[in-house]
Design goal:
binds NADPH dihydro-nicotinamide-adenine-dinucleotide phosphate; 6-stranded mixed beta sheet; Aldehyde Dehydrogenase, Chain A, domain 1; alpha/beta; single chain
Length: 469
C-alpha cells in the first residue's frame, strides 16, 4: 500500500455513509468524507473549548515546540499531501502548485510558531506605567475555500494556535480531503482537540460562525458568503477576519520591456490556473506597448503545459469544479459575442479531462465587459488598452473590491507614485501576488478586512489587555 493510500485510508469515511470526492481532472472517486451535521459542529466546538485552557497554559514556548513538530510532520509527509491535494483540487504537483502549497504550509506554520508578539509598553514616564499584551480569544472557527485549501487553512489556523486558541476548521465542500489529510498529519504532533476538522456544508459553516462559543471567525471565500458570515457572527459579536474576492488590476506603463515582464505577468494572472484571490485579473496596458505585451504574454501562454496534475510535465490544471468552469466559460463567451479578440485559447478543453478550459488571453476588451468587471477566477486574462494614466488609475479603482493591484514600469520610483494612487490592500511593483509570511496581507473595500501574517496576524487572533498602574 502506498503512503498516500495509507493516509487516505486513515482519514476516509465509510463509503456507505460518506460523500464521494472526485478527482478534479478525471472525475474518478478519490475517497469519501463524512457528512457532518450541526450536532457534529456543536460537539467539535465543545471539544475545542474544553482543550483550550491546557493548550493556552503550555505558554509560547510549549506551543512553539508543538507547532514546529507539526511542521516537521508536514515536511515528512509532503509528497502524500501534495498528491491528495493535486488530485482533489486539480493543481499539478509540479510548478507553483501542489508541492509548492504543501511547502508553504510548513513555512507559514514555522513563521507563526517563531514570530514574537512582545508586550508593548505604552507609557512609562515615572508617573504612569501602562502596557498592552495579547491573550488567547478561545475557540477560532476557520472557514476555508477550495482554491488553496491547505495553505489558506494554515494561514487561518497557525497564528490562531500560536496565540493559544483552539481551532475548529471547516473546509470547502469541494476540497475537504486535502484539509482532513493536512490536519491528520499535524495532529500527529499536536495535543488532542486543539485542531478539529468538521466536514459540513455551507449551512453547517453558518452554524459554526454563529456558535456562541466561537470567539473569532477567520474566513476566506466569496464576498457574498463573507456578508452572510458577518451576519451570523454578529449575534455573538465574534471577531472577524474576512479575506474575500478580488478583481486585481495591473497597470503597464509605456516604458517597459514587454519580453522581460511577460513571464511574470503570465504567472501573476495564471498561478493556480487563475484560481487565486489575489491574481492579476484585468491588465491595463499603455497603447504604445499594447500589441507587444499582448503578443509576449500570449507567447508564454502557448508554451505552458496544461493537463492532469499527476503528470510532472504539466503546470496548469483544470478549473476545480463545474460551477466555476461555467463562470469562466460564460465570461469568455460574453467577450467573444461583444467582439473581443481571442489571442490564445477561448474554448473548453474536454480532451484533457473534466472542467479543463484552455489558457485564454482576451484582447481588445474594455471596462463594462463582464470579463473585466466580474471576477473570472480561472484561466482567462482580459488585456485592456489605455492611453492616459489617470484613466487607467480610475479604471483600476472603479470596482467595489480592492485586494491587490500592480504597476509595471522600468522606473521603480514612477511606479511607486502610481502605486500610491491605487486603492488595494497590497500593490506590487513589477510582480503580482507574491506573498511573504513577514508581510501582512488583507483587502480593502468589499475584499474584506483584517490582516493576516506576521505580528499583525497574531494580533488579529488575540485580544489586547492593557495593564495600567
Ligand atoms: P464560498 O464563499 O461560497 O465558500 C467558501 C467557504 O464558505 C466554504 O467553506 C463554504 O462551504 C463556506 N460557506 C458557504 N456558505 C456559508 C455560510 N452561509 N456560512 C458560513 N460558511 C459558508 O465560495 P465558493 O466556493 O462557492 O466560490 C464562489 C466564488 O468565491 C468563486 O467564484 C470565487 O469568485 C470566490 N472565491 C474566492 C476565494 C478567495 O480566495 N478569495 C476562494 C474561493 C472562491 P461549502 O463549500 O460547504 O459551501
Amino acid at each position: 500500500m502506498s503512503e498516500t493510500t495509507a493516509l487516505l485510508d486513515r482519514i476516509q469515511a465509510d463509503p456507505e455513509t460518506g460523500r464521494a470526492i472526485p478527482d478534479a481532472a478525471t472525475g474518478e472517486t478519490i475517497g469519501y468524507v463524512p457528512k457532518q451535521t450541526a450536532d457534529d459542529v456543536d460537539a467539535a466546538v465543545a471539544r475545542a473549548q474544553a482543550a483550550q485552557p491546557a493548550w493556552d497554559a503550555l505558554g509560547h514556548e510549549g506551543r512553539r515546540a508543538a507547532l514546529l513538530a507539526a511542521a516537521d510532520a508536514i515536511d515528512a509527509h509532503a509528497e502524500e499531501l501534495a498528491t491528495i491535494l493535486s488530485r482533489e483540487q486539480g493543481k499539478p504537483l509540479n510548478g507553483p502548485n501542489a508541492r509548492f502549497e504543501v511547502g508553504a504550509c510548513s513555512t507559514w506554520l514555522r513563521d507563526a510558531a517563531t514570530t514574537e508578539l512582545e508586550t508593548e509598553v505604552l507609557v512609562d514616564d515615572g508617573e504612569t506605567y501602562a502596557e498592552m499584551s495579547y491573550q488567547a480569544l478561545g475557540v477560532v472557527a476557520a472557514i476555508g475555500p477550495w482554491n488553496w485549501p491547505m495553505m489558506i487553512g494554515m494561514w487561518q489556523s497557525a497564528p490562531s494556535l500560536r496565540m493559544g486558541n483552539t481551532v475548529v476548521a471547516k473546509p470547502s465542500s469541494s476540497t475537504p480531503l486535502s484539509v482532513l489529510a493536512l490536519i491528520d498529519v499535524m495532529n500527529q504532533a499536536l495535543p488532542a482537540d486543539v485542531l478539529i476538522p468538521v466536514v459540513t456544508n455551507g449551512a453547517g459553516g453558518g452554524h459554526l460562525a454563529a456558535h456562541p462559543d466561537v470567539a473569532k471567525v477567520m474566513f476566506t471565500g466569496s464576498t457574498e458568503t463573507g456578508r452572510r458570515i458577518a451576519e451570523s457572527a454578529g449575534g455573538n459579536l465574534a471577531r472577524l477576519t474576512l479575506e474575500l474576492g478580488g478583481n486585481d488590476a495591473g497597470i503597464v506603463l509605456p516604458d517597459v520591456d514587454p519580453q522581460a515582464i511577460a513571464e511574470d505577468l503570465f504567472w501573476g494572472a495564471f498561478i493556480n490556473t487563475g484560481q487565486t484571490c489575489a491574481a492579476l485579473k484585468r491588465l491595463y496596458v499603455h497603447e504604445d506597448v499594447y500589441d507587444d505585451v499582448v503578443d509576449a504574454v500570449a507567447a508564454v501562454a502557448r508554451q505552458v503545459p496544461m493537463g492532469n496534475g499527476l503528470d510532472e510535465g504539466n503546470v496548469l490544471g483544470p478549473v476545480q469544479n463545474a460551477a466555476q468552469f461555467e463562470i469562466v466559460q460564460e465570461l469568455v463567451e460574453d467577450a467573444k459575442a461583444r467582439g473581443a479578440r481571442i489571442v490564445v485559447g477561448g474554448e473548453a478543453a474536454p480532451e484533457l479531462g473534466a472542467n479543463f478550459f484552455q489558457t485564454t488571453i482576451v484582447a481588445e476588451v474594455a471596462d463594462g465587459y463582464r470579463i473585466v468587471d466580474e471576477e473570472q477566477f480561472g484561466p482567462a486574462l482580459p488585456i485592456i488598452r489605455y492611453s492616459d494614466i489617470d484613466e487607467a488609475v480610475a479604471s483600476a479603482n472603479r470596482l467595489d473590491v480592492g485586494l491587490g493591484g500592480s504597476v509595471w514600469s522600468g522606473d521603480r520610483e514612477k511606479a511607486r507614485e502610481i502605486a500610491k494612487r491605487l486603492r488595494a490592500g497590497t500593490v506590487w511593483i513589477n510582480q503580482h501576488g507574491t506573498l511573504h509570511p513577514k508581510v501582512p496581507f488583507g483587502g480593502v473595500k468589499q475584499s474584506g478586512y483584517g490582516l493576516e501574517f506576521s505580528v499583525a496576524g497574531l494580533k488579529s487572533v488575540s485580544e489586547p489587555r492593557v495593564i495600567n498602574g
